[in-house]
């Protein structure tokens, strides 16, 4: 056991496996474990819900390949539940990356225009290239990267941190949203209807064929972020400290941006832009762990719990009609922003 720089000794645990080691706070481990249990409980509930209720015992039997509900549980419900967990974790990771880079709780992909850029790229793929899965993925990633490049270029002088980048990102987000609306209005009726429905962000109807490759991409990006996490935590203590500890800031920031955009764009390519998970999840994880920085594991698990809970609510609110999950996350995001405003006013005595 050893202490992390800037934290009291005795509150962190180091887990070693060969040449690799992971240092985490005891509270972070406890919170992560609780979030994981909550995610598994919600996942079981998601597998029980559907056109008809399936008892938990029958669900567990179906997962083992037994009983009469194997097809319903394993082929219809399981892809959706896993998509909510994996996509929520990916959005939580993306939010943690950009909030750490900008050192601002508003520096998430859906606020600074990266979601809108990924959607623009996807719309281009739908309206010009025919909308195949490969074109959607490539268009989303390209759009997200171009939006990130535009935000960075317009905020030069403040680097990747500070309020200026967030303000520039909000402006870019507004312009891209207007562009997306124009593209939809100019498209043919059938294409416009499909794009409008998809823009709400939905997990309805996902199957194994659609989620296999995105799961693999997100797994690879998660491993990359896990490898970058120690250096990212060093930068949270200040650029001077990071440079003194041997962190190559330019290379680190480039890789973090690529990984964050990759997570956001992969989710957008499959499910459409699902807003506010990336904004709220890292701060919820930070609040629960009482950590001074944005930790990746609590952010990812908070995102998974948030998106799965939102999807369950989307299925139940107007049952048997399933709402797009983006409708529910938008409401959650509005409540979250209102809570931030109230909290800020109380803190400043307003």
UniProtKB/TrEMBL annotation:
Alphabetically ordered keywords of this record: Cell membrane, Membrane, Transmembrane, Transmembrane helix, Transport
Cellular localization per UniProt: Cell membrane
Membrane topology designation: Multi-pass membrane protein
Segments passing through the bilayer: 29-53, 81-99, 111-129, 135-154, 166-185, 211-233, 254-281, 316-342
GO CC, one annotated term: plasma membrane
Gene Ontology BP term (one): siderophore-iron import into cell
The UniProt record lists the keyword Lyase: no
GO molecular function: transmembrane transporter activity
Domain of life: Bacteria
InterPro entries: ABC_BtuC-like, ABC_transptr_permease_BtuC
PANTHER family: FERRIC ENTEROBACTIN TRANSPORT SYSTEM PERMEASE PROTEIN, FERRIC ENTEROBACTIN TRANSPORT SYSTEM PERMEASE PROTEIN FEPG
Similarity field: Belongs to the binding-protein-dependent transport system permease family. FecCD subfamily.
Full protein name: Iron complex transport system permease protein
Organism: Nonomuraea thailandensis
